[in-house]
Amino acid sequence: MSTTMEDAIRRGFGSGVDRVGAERPNTIESSTLRQRSRRVAAAPADLTQARRFHSANVDVRAMERMCVLPAVSDTAALRAFKILRTRVLRRLDMHKWSSIAVSGMSVGEGKTLTAINLALALSQDVNTFVFLVDLDLQRPQVANYLGMSFEKGLSDYLLGKAELDDIVYKLQSERLGVIPNARAFQHSSEFLNSPRMGEFLGSLEREMPRRIVIFDMPPLLASDDVLAFAPQFDSLLLVVSEGKSGRAMLKGAKEVLSEMNLLGVVLNRSKERNESAYY
């Protein structure tokens, strides 16, 4: 990285969810990531012919309470996520990336809400299908934010009790599939590298010619989950709450991020509430 993490977070890459990717990302040139980054984007998918997954049963009032867009009529937030969407799409296209892990420095940074709202914003692109995967296997929260009820989720798939058709739920549009989870795993990093997880990721890649996969992951420093799963995603979007992360935490994050492609930093709960501020 051309600046320290501390400098990046102090500058914030913009207030709220703006200016993601204002700085050159930390591009890793391992053989795995080189192979993945060479993938050429396929022609736009005929999404009307997409597989008919279950329709998601969500609670709009719960979404409003949790500040999930577009249930919240906050024009500044809507505008900010549209800007974030445009910049993320540009960066993904530039590097031929198709997957994003969203993580925070610690608990309570707002990474789950950012992942959900980014997925909703990206799904508005008519040529793109988005999968939102609740991969915080220690504290799954995506379904709670959506007020979503479901029969089977990712944990059922990983345990061999469900198939892909059983765990993908279409949300609002035909271009967003949510893979929720209700069960926490004590040994989550082992499940992240299991053969069953490999089958799951392969199924998502085959499902749509042009698709973006967003993984809502545990906080960066809370466990080794993000580091263990790093070979499986193309880029990482880091969510940081202003004034919450100390120097020791920033130093630890810098060491972890040195092994990943940093898509950008989202500065959350900024005191400078301007046109692009969110919280």
What does this molecule look like?
- The protein is α/β, with parallel strands linked by helices and 279 residues long.
- It contains 12 helices and 8 strands.
- α4 (75-95) crosses α5.
- The chain is globular, with a radius of gyration of 17 Å.
- The two termini are 28 Å apart.
- 45% of the residues are buried.
SSE layout:
Blueprint: H1 5-11, H2 31-37, E1 54-55, H3 60-65, H4 75-95, E2 99-104, H5 111-122, E3 129-134, H6 142-146, H7 154-158, H8 164-167, E4 169-170, E5 176-179, H9 188-192, H10 195-207, E6 211-216, H11 225-229, E7 235-241, H12 247-257, E8 262-268
Parallel strand pairs: 1-4, 2-6, 2-7, 3-5, 3-6, 7-8
Antiparallel strand pairs: 4-5
Helix pairs in contact: 4-5
- Let me know the CATH homologous superfamily: P-loop containing nucleotide triphosphate hydrolases
CATH architecture heading: 3-Layer(aba) Sandwich
CATH class: Alpha Beta
- Classify the helix fraction into a percent range: 25-40%
Share in β-strands = 5-15%
Largest sheet: 8 strands, mixed
> Quick check: average pLDDT?
79
CATH topology group = Rossmann fold
Order of helices and strands: HHEHHEHEHHHEEHHEHEHE
Structural class: alpha/beta
Distance from N terminus to C terminus (CA atoms, Å) equals 28 Å
Tell me the radius of gyration. Answer: 17 Å
Total count of domains: 1
Strand order of the largest sheet: 1-4-5-3-6-2-7-8
- State the total count of DSSP E strands: 8
Low-pLDDT segments: 1-49, 273-279
The outline comes out as globular
Number of helices: 12
